[in-house]
Amino acid sequence: MARDHYEVLGVGRGASAEEIKKAYRKLARENHPDRNPDNPKAEERFKEVQGAYDTLSDPEKRKQYDAGGRFGGFGGGGGAGGPAGFTSDIGDIFSTLFRRGGTGPQQATRGRDLETEVSLPFKQAMDGTEVTVTVPKQSTCKTCSGTGARPGTMPVVCPRCGGRGIDSESQGFFSISQPCPQCGGAGQIIEDPCPTCSGSGLTMQSKRYRVRIPAGVRDGSRIRVAGKGEDGVRGGPPGDLYVVTRVTPSPVFRQRKDGNLEVNVPITIAEAIQGSTVEVPTLSGTKRIRMPAGTQHGTVQRLRGEGPPKAGTSNRGDIFYRLEVEMPRELNPEQRQALDAFADAINDHNPRERLLRDASAASAKVG
Q1: What is the 3-state secondary structure of 326-355?
Q2: For 262-295, what is each residue's pLDDT tens digit?
Q3: Beta-strand (E) ranges in 234-318?
Q4: Fewest CB within 10 angstroms: 82, 138, 145, 200, which?
């Protein structure tokens, strides 16, 4: 029997979406087949973690899963709602979970979405690049072409449910439904299973893809690669692959939440007082910016259009330069003499005079 999805990820049923995502990423990294090439159990554990996350990360799937769990599972007996624990109120749950319209053989189902991470140097993130990712995933069995049956044979319609996959029984005002015990809700029976996939129609395979990373991605950006997730069941469409970028921080540029960049630029006391033109770094080299006389510590100046490309447009973001007055730690005699002369020249100005006056006035009002 499959383990509870919450138990697989090690989170409680009340866990937030962020807690579920954090737990998944930790377990996916620990059990990734590339990191455990000699441990076959890691691949199975990775698959189990992927399956749990696929359900719990989707609000609608999680809601359906939680609803199913509260009614005691599927095919069990003795629930609170009747002999099998099901009433007509949850017929739609069966329809959704078994991916069928209520009649006919089992419908093809879409494959699961997958997620993987790539690490990028800051420059590649800004310029854009191509990366190769290796993804372990459930793919259509090459032996049986996804039917689940041994080559030369085909699944047959379940004789008990006639292909519906559900047993229904009317008791007064209620209709009790449960998965067909003979076919397990599949609507068909594989009499001679494929020796490669054991009847599932899917096998775990490692696939390599070249993925284009657009210029200007941020740390945590998710890039969708359509159709490269897990293959669907019974010929259903494949899911998608999401590539999450992990960008190595730059020693110079910081990525802001608004998509622009920021740089700390040290300036001297003289440059701040007198004003100056200073050289600053850009993504493509350097440029010069003009500081007015009396520039204060922490002043921010902007160079428009010098930042990272904006996704889906031909425009670029901006770079913000935060000017920081750098204080000398030591002075030689000549510098000290010059500083003393400067202090004497401006000793008639007390920058704290207004602060102290306001504090005194506020104190007098309280008294």
Answers
A1: CCCCCCCHHHHHHHHHHHHHCCCCCCCHHH
A2: 999 999 999 999 999 999 999 999 999 999 999 9
A3: 241-247, 254-255, 261-267, 276-282, 285-291, 300-303
A4: 145
